[in-house]
From TrEMBL:
One Pfam family hit: SMC_N
Residue runs in coiled coils: 300-378, 428-462
Record protein name field: RecF/RecN/SMC N-terminal domain-containing protein
Segments forming domain RecF/RecN/SMC N-terminal: 3-613
UniProt superkingdom: Archaea
Keyword annotations of the record: Coiled coil
């Protein structure tokens, strides 16, 4: 499933089509910061996962907003053609890629994006909390689904614990309410207090709270039921009259609305026009553009003109139809409300029968019900439009109705005093209300206690399940950690040979009650069980993070063919970067790499390592030479630095050649200082130039080398550089004398640099020479070199 080509359009910092033709080879990409390297990595991640992880980690940055390039956001897409089967597919922000079935296993591995390593992710492995480290590693090894299950179980456990607390709080509230109802301080006093009140009314005691409901029913039977019924009837009369008066108001308003609609209809159209609407709509279905004769009169017609007239007439009439519909709806509501008035009047009649004082109003109420029924039957659209029925008619009815209802209210006002309950009944009614409230709370309390028992049982089961699952999950993850331990130590030994770091450990906190966390420990300088963050340099921590990632990747991704590294060696020195090259090409040579860097030194080291490991034909080495907002990154195949300089000299561009030569010299001197452990004066900003590096590099080399012949060659080369170095200075800055410099002088300057460079490479394989202090030699750094150059040193 190696990548044949990548096509990126309108994505992140790539405004238009960018195609990387890899042909299944690895990609090594050099580019300064801000030239689009990370946009390419983001595109690969988006293609496989549908996400850009570092946007998500920033919380407020939306993928849909910041993923597409602002120039052509609608065209945003990432497509990949795979070498196997020449299968091409793409992802957009609205569609997903499709893959052949034989890709399924690798695609599943790719979905979490953990074949991509950025330096920010190294920090997630090292400089982070144990919990964040645990979560990140879980994603790499594919245990995140287990973590989701564990989180869901934990949430379920917390939910059930909350349910237990909620029910316990309800029980406490029940207890407080019960005490407040009876005004007691102790729950044991509930039954004695009830019996005390019953005794005051010369009623029998109850022997348990279970008998309270029976007690309440008994109290209800000994109160005067007739008095209660009369009071209820009197209350119902008042409520019913108020309801009727409110409905009367609604009917009055509906009549007002209906009259308004009727007036608009009469002003704009004749009523008969409404019947035309259906006819005109039917005619549209009959008449078409090819109709030559009218279907009604059979006279010849212009079908287009006729259709236009019909449509205009319909447009005019349809507004009338809407007004007519509104009027009809108002009339329907009026009929429904009058029906409700009659229902309430019938109810009122039944309650008046309880009271002889109000029976004088019955005959008139019955007559008003008949009148309203007759009026309701007369209400329809035609009669309303003809003025056969109107709001004025209803006004006459409701004036008489309201008069009668007001008389009933006046007549019922004096009745309440005559049907008041006795003083004993009042006391018994208070007890009934109090005991009913108490009984309701006691029943709630009993129900809550039953629910609490069930809830506690569920919560306990949930806790056991969560802790058991968590314990097993953590043990299994620890087993994975233990299996990668050997590889991490081996990888780290490749990066840091003969350094006092050993006994690497990743340890999961196995406490099942705690969330996942991963502790990182090593033996450093003989001190066991040390957190490397407390002692190690930033470069050592970054290299440790890289080793952990690679070991976990190897364990979890198996034969997954792709490995992406985005600027991961920022803090490592030159010697350790060489060792990173060795680690990658020695342990992962079968992978397709996509490696980006802004560091020219590591870029050259990676190219040299390709030669050392016979991987030159497996790589495409490219350089982003520029980036702009309109076109994005411009990528070209990498040229060997010396070949590029000789090409510039051949073109006669002395200014450019001088600049390139000076940059070549700066890179070479810094590399030599790193390799020989030369002492460079410290600079606050860390930006070293030729003047800072030349003397330390030259002095250190000449001081180290015992071989006189080699020493003389090297000293002679530095002398030639001293004679021509002025050319680089003149052409690298604004200088009036630059015009006097010839192209030949610039060429001699550049060749003197290249000669020093050649002298510091192995004559057999062209790998750079490294200083091995313990052996007191300068030796070819390529461990696979068949005839390594060795030079005695001090």
């Amino acid at each position: 499933m190696k990548i044949k080509s990548i096509k990126i359009d309108a994505f992140r910092g790539i405004p238009q089509n960018l195609e990387l033709d890899l042909q299944g080879k690895s990609l090594l990409l050099l580019g300064e910061n801000g030239t689009g390297k990370s946009s390419i990595i983001d595109a690969i991640e988006f293609f496989f996962t549908g996400k850009i992880s570092h946007l998500k980690s920033k919380g407020t940055l939306s993928l849909n907003e910041y993923g597409p390039n602002t120039k052509n956001p609608d065209k945003a897409s990432v497509g990949i053609e795979f070498k196997s089967g020449a299968h091409f597919t793409s992802r957009t922000f609205s569609s997903n890629p499709s893959f052949p079935k034989n890709f399924n296993e690798n695609i599943e591995l790719a979905k979490n994006g953990k074949f991509i390593l950025r330096r920010s992710q190294i920090l997630n492995l090292i400089n982070t909390t144990p919990a964040q480290r645990y979560a990140f590693i879980s994603e790499i090894i594919g245990a995140n689904e287990l973590e989701k299950t564990s989180t869901a179980m934990d949430q379920a456990k917390k939910y059930l614990d909350d349910e237990v607390r909620k029910i316990e709080n309800n029980i406490k509230k029940n207890n407080d309410d019960i005490k407040n109802i009876l005004q007691v301080q102790d729950s044991n006093n509930i039954l004695p207090t009830i019996n005390d009140w019953l005794g005051k009314e010369y009623l029998n005691n109850i022997n348990s709270l279970e008998k309270l409901e029976d007690c309440i029913n008994h109290l209800k039977t000994i109160t005067k039921s007739s008095d209660k019924e009369l009071i209820g009837a009197l209350d119902n009369i008042s409520v019913t009259i108020n309801e009727i008066l409110l409905i009367v108001k609604d009917v009055t308003q509906e009549f007002y609305d209906a009259e308004t609609y009727k007036e608009r209809i009469n002003q704009s159209h004749a009523q008969s026009d409404l019947s035309l609407i259906k006819l005109l709509k039917n005619s549209l279905e009959i008449i078409n553009k090819d109709t030559a004769n009218c279907p009604l009169c059979e006279n010849k017609v212009n079908s287009n003109e006729l259709l236009e007239k019909v449509n205009k007439r319909l447009e005019s009439l349809e507004s009338l139809q809407e007004i007519n519909d509104n009027m009809n709806n108002s009339l329907k509501r009026i009929k429904g409300n009058i029906q409700l008035i009659n229902r309430d009047l019938a109810n009122l009649l039944s309650k008046i029968d309880y009271f002889d004082e109000l029976k004088e109003f019955k005959d008139e109420l019955e007559q008003q019900i008949i009148s309203l029924n007759v009026f309701q039957e007369r209400i329809n659209a035609n009669s309303f439009l003809r003025e056969d029925v109107s709001g004025h008619d209803f006004e006459l009815l409701h004036i008489q109705l309201e008069k009668n209802l007001n008389n009933i209210i006046i007549g019922s006002d004096g009745l309440s005093d005559s049907i008041k309950p006795s003083e004993r009944d009042k006391r018994l009614n208070v007890l009934i209300k109090l005991f009913s409230d108490l009984d309701e709370n006691l029943k709630k309390q009993e129900e809550n206690r039953r629910e609490l028992k069930v809830a506690k049982n569920h919560a306990k089961i949930s806790e056991i399940m969560y802790e058991e699952f968590s314990a097993i999950k953590k043990r299994k993850i620890q087993e994975v950690y233990d299996t990668v331990k050997e590889n991490v130590e081996r990888y780290y030994a490749i990066l840091h040979p003969d350094e006092p770091y050993e006994n690497f450990n990743l340890d999961v906190d196995l406490n099942p009650k705690k969330k996942g966390s991963t502790d990182l420990r090593m033996t450093i300088f003989g001190e066991e069980n040390q957190d490397p963050r407390a002692i190690s340099s930033e470069g050592h921590l970054d290299s440790l993070g890289l080793c952990i990632f690679l070991a976990l990747f190897e364990k979890s991704h198996g034969d997954f063919p792709l490995l992406v590294l985005d600027d991961v060696v920022t803090t490592m020195d030159s010697r350790h970067r060489e060792n990173v090259c060795q680690l990658l090409f020695q342990e992962f040579s079968d992978r397709q790499f996509i490696i980006t860097t802004h560091d020219a030194i590591w870029y050259d080291q990676l190219k040299a390592a390709q030669r050392v490991h016979n991987l030159g034909n497996n790589f495409k080495n490219c350089n982003i030479i520029k980036w702009d907002n309109e076109n994005g990154p411009e990528i070209r195949p990498y040229k060997v630095r010396w070949d590029k300089i000789t090409e510039i000299i051949a073109n006669g561009d002395k200014q450019c050649a001088g600049n390139e030569g000076r940059r070549y010299l700066e890179w070479l001197l810094m590399d030599l200082c790193n390799r020989t452990q030369a002492k460079i004066p410290a600079k606050y900003y860390g930006k070293y130039e030729v003047n800072d590096l030349l003397k330390p590099a030259k002095s250190r080399l000449l001081e180290l080398i015992k071989d006189e012949e080699y020493n003389q060659k090297l000293e002679s080369s530095f002398d030639k550089l001293d004679q021509t170095i002025m050319m680089g200075n003149l052409l690298s800055h604004e200088n009036l004398m630059a015009g006097n410099v010839s192209i030949d002088e610039v060429e001699r300057f550049c060749r003197s640099i290249n000669h020093i460079h050649e002298l510091t490479l192995c004559s057999n394989c062209k790998a750079p020479l490294g200083y091995y202090q313990n052996l007191k030699i300068l030796r070819c750094s390529n461990k696979k070199c068949s005839d390594p150059l060795e030079i005695k040193a001090k």
